[in-house]
Amino acid sequence: MAQQKSVTLVISHLLDPQHSQRYEEWLGKIMPIAAEFPGHLGANVIRPAAGQNLWSVIIRFDTLEHLYAWTQSETRRQLVAEIAPLLTEGDRTEVRTEPAFWFTPPTVNVRQPRRWKQFLITLLVISPAPTWCLR
């Protein structure tokens, strides 16, 4: 069986934009602590796009065991509890074991077209053009 090269932890935090500065300070505190854990290979923070408030943190570890040691540690639990009041949807995590994957942050606050517009476009696409239009 082939040895895995690395595993990735994708963390999503949704928070009120007024708490961004405090959240960045918290990231400055937690990231160096995570880096001290065995097997830590690096981390990236993806700040929210303009008008959005979803922060994504991607952390890589050499093995699944080392990743779980970090995610299940009392240190991480305490640090997440410290910032939990600012998170509108809690601490959402996802473990990715494949060596490469596309990371696409979920879209937030995307406006959907009105139903009548969807209906009209669908009708125009599937209906034949009236004969008076073709003359």
Automatic annotation (TrEMBL):
The record's listing under InterPro entries reads:
ABM_dom, ABM_predict, Dimeric_a/b-barrel
| Domain ABM intervals | 13-80
Q: Name one GO molecular function term.
A: monooxygenase activity
Query: Which parts of the chain span the membrane according to its record?
Result: none
Key word Magnesium present = no
Keywords of this entry: Monooxygenase, Oxidoreductase
Instruction: Spell out the Pfam families in the cross-references.
Output: ABM
**Gene3D superfamilies recorded for this chain?**
3.30.70.100
Recorded hits in PANTHER family, A to Z, give: SLR1162 PROTEIN
List the protein's name: Antibiotic biosynthesis monooxygenase
